[in-house]
Design goal:
Helices cover 38% and strands 19% of the residues. The chain contains eight helices and ten strands. β1 and β2 form a beta hairpin.
């Protein structure tokens, strides 16, 4: 027995079959959409808020602010509501309506601006006034530490230590950084594969950051390989996941899956795990499944 926060983590790991011909290679999907807030970001949001409260940086009177492309915002809105905290979430105006409505349903104030870079600047400027506490997922160690504590150990446990490749989209890079730290400690031979969009692609949840906005928690030495993902490939793979594997997810998950299949076709044997970041119902008002 417990509250909704106690249901975060221990998400299913399911095998995805029928996308390559080598029986000695397995692909597994880590279904992070099964978290109560619907995405992998529940883990980081909980760890960032709870850790700051434990350090005394946040009290019931603190007003939180954070820039987000969507999933972190939903997770923060849900967890802030559980702790009785006020939060303002700043998002690009291109974000799907479902995301805004979900944040508002949890009681958050939502501000929509031109793009993610402008949203980040706005949140940092308001925090600089001293009236707000910025969680700053892009530079907050509690972001990646959530995955050292939970996601990495779950993957190692559920593959019985057989994982050879870990594949993840790169946005804030918290998931790939934390999982890399944990998994490499168990077996340094595990290959960490990151995904970023091609220069002309737009994939929600995956970013190709300008140098000045590169997340401060990102350490390129912890990623063995980066695969560029075309928007069309991410879209088609997302649709395939739903129609052929029963996995209803967003476009960043399709991008990670595309990279996982690419790796599967290159190796002779192995156990590949990719992160399914969220659920597809966040994209129904877009043309993703059209």
């Amino acid at each position: 027995m417990g509250n909704i926060i106690d249901t975060i983590g221990n998400t299913p790991l399911v095998e995805i079959t029928g996308f390559h011909d080598n029986p000695r290679v397995q692909i597994f999907a880590k279904l992070e959409g099964n978290n109560p807030g619907g995405s992998v970001k529940d883990r980081a949001a909980l760890n960032m808020i709870r850790s700051a409260m434990e350090r005394g940086e946040i009290t019931k009177e603190t007003k939180l602010i954070e820039a987000t492309s969507g999933n972190t915002g939903i997770a923060l809105a849900m967890i802030a509501s559980m702790f009785g905290l006020q939060i303002e979430l700043v998002m690009p105006s291109t974000s799907t309506r479902e995301r805004t409505l979900t944040m508002e349903a949890f009681g958050a104030k939502v501000t929509l601006l031109d793009n993610m870079e402008v949203s980040r600047d706005y949140a940092e400027e308001k925090a600089a006034t001293g009236d707000y506490y910025i969680l700053n997922q892009f530079a907050n160690p509690d972001n990646y530490k959530a995955h050292i504590k939970t996601t990495g150990p779950e993957i190692w446990r559920d593959t019985e230590g057989k994982i050879t490749h870990f594949v993840s989209a790169m946005g804030t890079t918290g998931t790939i950084m934390g999982c890399s730290m944990y998994l490499k400690e168990q077996n340094p031979e595990i290959q960490i594969v990151g995904c970023q969009p091609t220069p002309d692609s737009s994939i929600p949840g995956i970013r190709r950051w300008p140098e000045e906005y590169l997340p401060k928690i990102f350490d390129p030495a912890r990623v063995d390989r980066v695969i560029d993902i075309d928007q069309a490939d991410a879209t088609s793979r997302t649709r395939e996941l739903a129609r052929k594997a029963g996995v209803f997810a967003g476009m960043s998950s399709g991008g990670a899956f595309h990279a996982a299949v690419q790796v599967a076709n290159e190796i002779e044997e192995g156990c590949i795990v990719f992160i399914v970041c969220d659920r597809g119902d966040r994209y129904l008002s877009s043309d993703l499944f059209g």
